């Protein structure tokens, strides 16, 4: 496993085509696209890492996985009255379907659906309390109390988040927000501004790996469902392509991070800030394609070599 990660990091380091860094959140626009990190936390308790695996980055939409777990903890299956479970086939910030589908977002990973999840885990509490619960969840999953929110990134997004505000107002107009638009947006932008390294994110992702050694933060049934949603919706309109190329549940973020789960085996975090046309990490996706090919961990087929790297 270590040799494979080292090789993957070397291939990424020498790739001249690194995609483009997200610029719509000004604080993220200046990130060096030359960076690449990858880490694997196995069900057996081992951690492997290569490249810039200890450099913190903005997890952005990867946070929607933790937010969904928290929202389900608050509302249980009632959440599915307010958000769907189907891929949207549209970009992460699209407003198109929201009008046609009466303010019920297609899934909890597009921005509109994630705003409903944030509204749900906010419940009646203050943003500070809700974000405290979110950080406690992430820190427990990662077994790391140093994980924090980058306030500058959060403020940068609040100041420029016109699309997210419009999505939230749409939701509110259909009665699908219980807290004020400002409160939901403020909490959501802070949630997206959580900073983690690949090593920390791989550790945190273990709560989605079915194994008796993982922290039991969600039930087995819930894990299975979150993984299913990551597979079908975790990469927005690039979800089909990610399933085709990688074949594992994954959640991307515009910071260039991707969290990937191999159920029963391991959690993988990869990060490179340059994005492809879907807004997902270009080199991260390519690295995961190589990783899946070499490990045989696609859920859609057995390893061609018969070897299992864990
Ligand atoms: O709401 C936004 O636009 C960002 N905070 C998160 C979007 C995102 O990460 C999309 N992922 N690829």
UniProtKB/TrEMBL annotation:
Entry EC number(s): 3.5.1.2
Catalyzed chemical reaction(s): L-glutamine + H2O = L-glutamate + NH4(+)
GO biological process per UniProt: glutamate biosynthetic process; L-glutamine catabolic process
Pfam family, one: Glutaminase
Keywords attached to this entry: Acetylation, Hydrolase
Gene3D superfamilies: DD-peptidase/beta-lactamase superfamily (3.40.710.10)
Sites where the protein binds substrate: 61, 111, 157, 164, 188, 236, 254
This protein's record includes keyword Acetylation: yes
One function term, GO molecular function aspect: glutaminase activity
Keyword flag Transport: no
Oligomeric and partner information: Homotetramer.
NCBIfam families: Gln_ase, PRK00971.1-2
Similarity-based family: Belongs to the glutaminase family.
UniProt-recorded name of the protein: Glutaminase
Organism in which the protein naturally occurs: Roseibium aggregatum
């Amino acid at each position: 496993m270590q040799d494979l990660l080292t090789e993957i990091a070397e291939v990424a380091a020498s790739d001249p085509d690194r995609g483009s860094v997200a610029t719509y959140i000004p604080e993220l626009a200046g990130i060096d696209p030359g960076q690449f990190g990858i880490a694997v936390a196995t069900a057996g308790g081992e951690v492997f890492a290569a490249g810039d695996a200890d450099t913190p980055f903005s997890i952005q939409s990867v946070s929607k996985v933790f937010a969904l777990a928290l929202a389900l903890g608050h509302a249980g299956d009632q959440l599915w009255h307010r958000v769907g479970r189907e891929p949207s086939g549209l970009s992460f910030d699209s407003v198109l379907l929201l009008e046609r589908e009466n303010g019920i977002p297609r899934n909890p990973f597009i921005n509109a659906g994630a705003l409903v999840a944030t509204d749900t885990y906010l419940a009646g509490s203050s943003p500070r309390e809700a974000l405290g619960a979110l950080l406690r969840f992430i820190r427990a999953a990662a077994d790391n109390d140093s994980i924090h929110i980058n306030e500058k990134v959060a403020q940068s997004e609040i100041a420029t988040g016109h699309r997210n505000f419009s999505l939230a107002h749409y939701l509110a107009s259909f009665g699908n927000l219980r807290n004020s638009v400002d409160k939901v947006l403020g909490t959501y932008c802070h949630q997206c501004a959580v900073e983690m390294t690949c090593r920390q994110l791989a550790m945190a992702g273990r709560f989605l790996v079915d194994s008796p050694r993982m922290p039991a933060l969600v039930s087995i049934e819930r894990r299975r469902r979150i993984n299913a949603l990551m597979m079908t919706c975790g990469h927005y309109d690039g979800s089909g392509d990610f399933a085709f190329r990688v074949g594992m549940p994954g959640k991307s973020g515009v910071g260039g991070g991707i969290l990937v789960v191999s159920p029963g085996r391991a959690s993988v975090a990869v990060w490179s800030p340059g994005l492809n046309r879907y807004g997902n990490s270009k080199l991260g996706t390519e690295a995961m394609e190589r990783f899946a090919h070499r490990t045989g961990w696609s859920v859609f087929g057995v390893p061609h070599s018969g070897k299992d790297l864990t």
